[in-house]
Each structure stands twice: as C-alpha cells, then as structure tokens.
Amino acid sequence: MKRIAILAVIILMTSGGALRADPWQKSVDANLTLTQNAYSNSWTGGEAGSLSWTFNSNSVFERQFTTRLNNKNTLVLFFGQTHAQDRETKKWAKPVKSTDRIDFETVFRFTLERVVDPYASGRIETEFIDQSDPANERALNPVLFTESFGVAKVLTKAGKREWTARLGAGLRQHLDRSVLDPSSGEKRTKTASDAGLLFVSDFATPLADSAITVTSRLSVFKALSYSESKKLEGKYNMDYWKAPDVNWEGVFTANITKYLMVNVYAQLLYDKEVSLAGRFRQSLSLGITYKLM
Known about the structure:
Number of strands: 14
CATH architecture: Beta Barrel
Strand content: over 45%
CATH class: Mainly Beta
Distance between the termini: 25 Å
Oligomer: single chain
Strand order of the largest sheet: 1-2-3-4-5-8-9-10-11-12-13-14
Largest sheet: 12 strands, antiparallel, barrel
C-alpha cells in the first residue's frame, strides 16, 4: 500500500490541468451464495452433510480529478469455505477454503485527448488466509506487487459498456512471509522480483437492459529480467521465467430478481514456473446479491 500511496501523491502533484468538480463514479456489487444438506444419524445411505458458502464483491471507484487526470480504482474480494461431515461419526471437520482472493488496482490515466494516453498503475494481489502449508497458516500472504507505466487506449466507452487496453513496462515484487524450512524448523521471508512488458485488456458490457453483465480481463506479462535467475543456472527450469504469464478471467452475472442472481466465473492461467500446462477453474453459483452503490 505504501508504494501505491507514493505513486498517487506524485501523480496528483504533477498532473496539472484545470480542476474539475466531477464526483466519484461508484459501483459496489456484493453477493453471497450458500449450499447446504444434512442427514440424520439413522440415515443408512452413507451420505454426509455439507455446507458451502462463497462471498464475492466487486467495487469500482472512478473520478476525473482534472481535465488531464483520470483515476480508476478496482477492488475484487472472494472468499469461501466448505464444511463437511464425517460419514461414520457425523462430526463436522475443519472447514476447507474453496476460494480466496484480494485484488486491488489503481490506474492513473493522463487524458490528453491524443491517440493514446500515458498511464501509471499499482496493483496488490494476496489472499485472506494462506493455507498452502497446513502447519503454517498465514494471513494476507503471499503478496504480489505490480507497478506499471506506459500508454493506454479507450477502445469503446458508451454508458456502462467499456473496453480499454494498456501496454507498458511492468515491475513485480513477490513476497512470501514466514516460510517454514522443514529441515531447520526456522521461518524466513522469501522475496523475488522481475521486470518486463505488461499488456492488459479490460472489457465490460451490460446486456438485456442491464439485467446481465459480462466482464472480461486479459493480462500478459513477459519478464525480461528476474532476480533469481542466477540461482537457476544449470537447472532444467532455468529458462521457465522467460515464458509469458497469461491470466484471463471472465464473469457472467444475471440478476433474476432484485436480490437473486446467477454468477458464472471462469479463469485460465498459464505460468510455466508453476505448471507446464495451463490451469483452469470455473464456478457456478446462485445466491443473494445486493448493489450498495
């Protein structure tokens, strides 16, 4: 957060342009989904009860501060758990995390009314609870910081339909706190950083009189330097960090009534350092939604 605050102060001090009184354009959508089933102790089919819940929130705050400076902030929050009952004892086991994400990004775009606009952005990605090591749970870990600057283009903007693209230089810092060493039992913080080129495309459009919303984001990061490259020399994966990292996300949301919604989320990831194959996840949920703003 410190990096982003410094970035915002510098940009606001150097942006120039006539002051404008444009208010914040605010949008906060939140939804909660719940699935539950239970069986009595006399049930003989071998089934067991379960309880699954997921909370999703998507917030956007945008403002034109001056005639030359636009700021857009996006906050995405996901968290969900699954509780399962033992088939024999009927006791409830410790809940297992099903989804977890905190993603905040701020983008400052210099609206110079040219073919493209210069921009600078900062992003933080982390999790509420890191359960990658069951013996060493950590809050708000791991953390990925991304700073970027380059050029942006608003390809389409009509009402709530918007499509923007950005291309620039990107800097990333990876932070993994209190990593437990199984041999020594000691904990230490792992850090790594890389720099390269970043491309981001954001698209959102309402359908059917705004009852349906479709959003899509594609980001591609091509690393040109990596702080840990020397440690990998001679290993089979020494060049894996050079492969582009691809992240595509798509969300389809349909409001059945004012408070009931259907949400379909899909994500496709490719990071050669994590897996040689692409990773895919998808979720379908029916739940309660509420539009705060």
